[in-house]
Amino acid sequence: MLGGAFLALVATVATLYFSPLLALRSIEVSGNDLLTDARAQELVESFYGEPLPQVSTADIRAALEQENVVADVHSRAELPHTLHVEIQEHPPVAEVHEDEAVLFYNDAGEVIREFRGAQVMDAEGYATPEVSAEAALEDEAVFAAIVSVLGQLPESAREQMSAASAESIDSVHLELADERVVVWGSDDRGEEKAAVLEAILASSAEDFAEAQIIDISTPSTPVTR
Question: From start to end of the chain, where are the E strands?
Answer without folding.
Answer: 26-30, 70-78, 82-89, 94-98, 101-105, 111-116, 130-131, 161-166, 172-176, 181-185, 213-215, 223-224
